[in-house]
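Sequence, please.
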C-alpha cells in the first residue's frame, strides 16, 4: 500500500454513510408529506359527505356538519359552499413535516335523484 492512500477507505465509508442517511431522510420526508396529503384529502371527503347528507336542511346545517367532521379528523374547515344539493368544501391541516399547512378540496352531492324530482336524475 502506498503511504498516500492511508485512511482513504474511511473517507469513502463516511461518504457512503452520509449519502445513505440523506436518501433515507428524503424518502421518509416524502412519505410523511404524502401521508399528510392523504389525511387532508380524507378529511375533506368525509366533511363533504357529511355536509351533503344535510344539504336538504340548508347551508348552515350542511356547513356545521362539515365543520364538525373536519375537526373530528384533525383539520379545519376553510370554506364550505352549497350549490343546489352539491356541497364543496376546503379543509386545511397543519403539517408536521414542513412549516406550512396542507389544503384539500372535495365535492359531494346526492347519489340518487332529489326527492320531488320527476326525472330522477337530480340537478
Amino acid at each position: 500500500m502506498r503511504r498516500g492512500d492511508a485512511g482513504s477507505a474511511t473517507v469513502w465509508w463516511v461518504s457512503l454513510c452520509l449519502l445513505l442517511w440523506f436518501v433515507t431522510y428524503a424518502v421518509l420526508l416524502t412519505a410523511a408529506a404524502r401521508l399528510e396529503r392523504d389525511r387532508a384529502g380524507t378529511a375533506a371527503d368525509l366533511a363533504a359527505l357529511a355536509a351533503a347528507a344535510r344539504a336538504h336542511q340548508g347551508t348552515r346545517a350542511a356547513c356545521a356538519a362539515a365543520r364538525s367532521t373536519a375537526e373530528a379528523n384533525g383539520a379545519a374547515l376553510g370554506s364550505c359552499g352549497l350549490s343546489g344539493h352539491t356541497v364543496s368544501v376546503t379543509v386545511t391541516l397543519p403539517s408536521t413535516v414542513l412549516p406550512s399547512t396542507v389544503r384539500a378540496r372535495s365535492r359531494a352531492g346526492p347519489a340518487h335523484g332529489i326527492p320531488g324530482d320527476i326525472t330522477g336524475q337530480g340537478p
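The first helix runs from residue 8 to 53.
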